[in-house]
Amino acid sequence: MSLAAHLPALQVVLPLLSAPLAVLLRHGGLAFAIVTAGAWSAFAAAIALWLQVGETGAISYHIGNWPPPWGIEYRVDRLASFILLLVAGTAAVVLPYSRASIAREIPRELHYLYYAMFGLCLAGLLGIVVTGDAFNIFVFLEISSLSTYVMIALGRDRRALAASYRYLIMGTIGATFFVIGIGFLYLMTGTLNLVDLAERMRSVESSRPVLAALAFITVGVSLKLALFPLHQWLPNAYTYAPSAVTAFLAATATKVSVYVLIRFWYSVFGETLIFHRLPLPQILLLLSLAAMFAASFTAIFQDNLKRLFAYSSVGQIGYITLGMSFDSVSGLTAAVVHLFNHGITKAAIFLLIGGLVVGLAKPDAHRDAPAGSRDAVPPAPTFDRLAGLAQRMPLTCFGIVVAGLSLIGVPGTAGFVGKWYLILAAMEKGQFWIVGAILLSSLLAVAYVWRFVEVAYFRSPPAGCARCEPPPGLLIPAWLLVGATVWFGLDTSVTLGTALDVARQLVKVGA
Amino acid sequence: MTALQLALGIPLVGAAAIALAHRRPNLREAATLSTAIALCAAVLQLLDPVLAGARPELTLLEILPGLAIAFRVEPLGMLFGLVAAGLWIVNSIYSIGYMRGNGEQHQTRFYVCFALSLGAALAIAFAANLLTLFLFYEVLTLLTYPLVTHAGTDKARAGGRTYLAVLMGTSILFLLPAVVYVWHAAGTTDFAAGGILPADMGRGAVAVLLALFMFGIGKAALMPFHRWLPAAMVAPTPVSALLHAVAVVKAGVFSVIKIVVYVFGLDALAGATDWLVALSGFTIVAASLVALHADNLKRRLAYSTVSQLSYVILAAAILAPLSLVGAALHIAAHAFGKITLFFAAGSIYTAAHKTEVSQLDGIGRRMPWTMAAFGIGALSMIGLPPAAGFVSKWYLVSGAMHQGAWLALLVVLLSTLLNAAYFLPIVYRAFFRPLSAEAVHHPHGEAPWPIVFALTLTAAGTLALFFFPEVPLALAQQLVQP
Amino acid sequence: MSGGLLEHFSHIVAVLLMVAGLHVVMARGNLIKKLVGLSIFQTSVYLLYIAPGKLIGGTAPILAPEYALYSNPLPHVLILTAIVVGVATLALGLALAVRIREAYGTIEEDEITAADNAVQDAEGAKP
After folding, report:
1. Burial call B186-207: b when 16+ CB within 10 Å, e when fewer
2. What is this structure's pTM?
């Protein structure tokens, strides 16, 4: 078999191998090189897979040549290949950024461990997406989660430790719930292969263990994807993690969990059970609306820019789950396309904020060191430090504004596409009050984005402050993503084309 | 390259050139002027084909399946594009005089945003579908925001906040759902003569959709969403002149006409616009009353604009072909008249540093050119010959009579009186009152020559539109008889 | 699905452990105790998986004529993986607790929250 035939396995194996190699090398620079090579080749594999799936349809790969359902199957369909693009693409951009970023945030002797954790996390996330085996999902989920906890704990503020611990508790409960659900399904059907599971499910669909499994899986995954009100772990974890980690997690971790939920709801349990026999769509609708309003509203009043955008993430996840709750082609299209677009938008924002923190920490940039805090702590991006920032870091600030416009959903940015389909989906269902709710919550986004604009552009900077744009090693990757945010708002053939295909394949009962 | 590609591309190239020349003011201003001239030439290239019945088209990227960023030049867009591109040349001359005369900061940012705003206005003018129109409508809002808040003071920030809140808020809350609903109901958003809505659409749905559009286009300043226009007067005068007399507000009323004619179609709206006639009539009168009491000259002009914009909405809401011709003509007529008035206000501020109407006693003897031009602009606002405003008002009134819209006629009559009441005293003060004691000790002459030259040009244009209205008239008539 | 309490004995034990573990995680403020609870919670899942796979009198699946009754080996294998994951989680959690103790001087959750809030207030109050 040629190399191309093994792409689904290579997709996971390459970054997975890079991690132990990085540990063995025990050298920051070499570890960086090898993990980056792993991530880039994973990205290349993801592109190749996306093209291949677009031509031939879903690819089934049998690990060790054991045919499913006996062996483990890797299965890449349109949706999976799309998420692979997002995860591997973000990693490919964030890793070069890490090089310049963590030098200021993590002690030198720990660098190689950071890269190892990054490689593991990437492998785990990619593994969740490609695997067609339910228990395998759990294993990959824990691989990615454990490495995530470590990466968050690497943040320099001591609050990063507490945030990481809380995330560990919540995340482990979520993953354990998930594995309980899988256990029930296995007891009822005797299989772990997702395709096989879906077929055997028909005969036991309404039995009580299956309903229990559904409940455990849904709650477990919802914890990981930070569905309101299970989002408590997210704001602190995003705020205190190293910048590169925040950007990577915001773009991928919650999004992959959404993918798992879509997979289980649509492919395993089936639309009829989820959307017609149970009140799940109504519950999801209400929780999504609560997220869109409560989290966005909380975001407006945050003092720390990173935390502001962390809450914004919770709100934006509300849009994604709202799209799922409609059970229609337009709705699922909105969810899938917004998942991708919001991922790159948020990654861009958090990368820029990382640069901003570095700029603020330059010795000549601020004269008054924050009193009373540990000297090693870099200045938090709180609003009082951002006054007049646009004069000191014009590129960084403008980038945040552009990405912020995408959060609002201004046409011409990526965020608009998802919002358009979300509104369309609500109209198709004739639920105009939801249309109103979507639009009103967009105004909340205007409020929190403009709070930044007014502080950065209109307050005068403290006297004697020089221009302190972050180094190009931080700016270029961030601006790559900002460019992508605009590009995917104008040319949607890749994103929207894929999302529409996915939705048409998955939605069979709903209109 | 086609003329259409040029017309849309030149502002972008120009903006880049202006940005590159930011260290050399002379080169930068030369870039601004030559961009404006090149743009006007490109737009003029389009005129003859359009008059002859051609409709140049251009399709760019496909944003959503079946929904591309596409452009198609039709008569109304041609008229708007011509006015905006033509007046930009004059405005550039004026800007150079004004920005240098007042020693403003951040001039490069100013010229770049200006060029890009013009590009967005032209993209709105030539938009072939609602999505393109909506896209550039939002882009125009965002690009003009730095211009409005140019001064960077707290007052500018507060004004900018109102500006953005009203324009963004209305467009997100009302315009966006209206656009999506048209797509949902009609399966297309391409503008087409006679409307695109399905014939079986209920009257209630049509009424709601019309309301969403009318309030969603906040740039048309229909009450109660007019507050942004006076707020935007914190901007430097050239911005107020070109953007808030020509490009931005005209983009608003242009969109109104375009949507009434090409999305709804006159027949589909029959009987559904009574409330709009009443509301635009109310806006006309109420804004005039506010203007009557405003002492700040730019504030008075701003409320006059609010009132004049509703003329266009009123003319469209009457649904008579003749009044639509009037609406289209009024876009051009009001543009020339109002830009003259703003130029004059800026001229007074630059030369005499005066902003209030009550300070203008006897100023006409020191600034005869400025105040004469102001007089011509005022005539056009009132709608008296020999100024352009007369022509458009003539068509509006003819259409209203034809349709038997007596309420509209009453409003026009009343507002003509009110217009006279708040413009003529200024002219009277300037020429016939003696100079105040304070002013005698602060001698000043006319403003710098680029300013005087520019406002003379636009005043002459206002007169020319009265005597030679053929080209705009031909375009406006093509709008109703395709 | 008939049968007495005894027939579901393993399930009942699993559920009891599950609830007890979760309760400890939520109700205790001590970071170590929380981890103990988490481990008990995870252990209950091991039981949930393995118990149904075991047949009384069954053996490992060895292909030989003298063995006719097999236990299902798959749950054992799965849970072996889950145990590894659980141990890793516990180790990481304990390591974090050690680091938290170094940074905060305490492993009581409410004291950590209080310390964090104090810092946050100080940051917010800064002009």
Report:
1. beebbbeeebbbeeeeeeeebb
2. 0.89
